[in-house]
Amino acid sequence: MLYTEKVMDHFEHPRNVGEIEHADGVGQVGNPKCGDIMKMYLKIDDGVITDVKFKTFGCGSAIATSSMATELIKGKRVEEALGLTNAAVAEALGGLPAYKMHCSVLAEEAIKAALADYYQKQGLEVPEACKLA
Ligand code: FES
Ligand code: FES
After folding, report:
1. What distance in angstroms lies between residue 62's CA and the mean position of ligand 1's atoms?
2. Residues lining ligand 2, judged by CB closer than 6 Å?
């Protein structure tokens, strides 16, 4: 089996799909090679991510990694969410095929883009960790 049960579960029943009106941070990223697009919305209260939603126009792994990434940062402080890596997302899903790892990179980047937007909207300096490679 190419995909783990967890990947299939998050693909078939993605968590936190949708958008947040008046979100405190919004980030959209895309992979020019496959054309997949991911958009993340964050609701942040007192530095805590109280809600997160996503929309992904992309492959099954992109949907599963977005879903898992939202679960991993929900309820966390922004500083903690900044430390989320694509490897951690893939690991939480029980692994991804090597050629699908870039899908998890998209999830990490979407969250960082949304966090960068949050810092900017707050008039704060955007932390290094938010900046995309
Ligand atoms: Fe979308 Fe293959 S990249 S189906
Ligand atoms: Fe590009 Fe999955 S194939 S994000």
Report:
1. 10
2. 31, 34, 36, 58-59, 61-62, 102-103, 106
Report the distance separating Cα 21 and Cα 98, nearest Å.
Answer: 36
Answer whether residue 1 shows pLDDT above 90: no
Domains of the chain and any CATH numbers: 5-121 (3.90.1010.10)
Q: What is the pLDDT of residue 131?
A: 78
- Which of 5, 12, 18, 34 is labelled catalytic? 34
* Pairwise CA distance, residues 4 & 105, whole Å: 18
pLDDT digits (tens, 9 = 90+) for 25-53: 999 999 999 999 999 999 999 999 999 99
First to last CA, the chain: 32
% the chain with pLDDT above 70: 98
SS3 99: helix
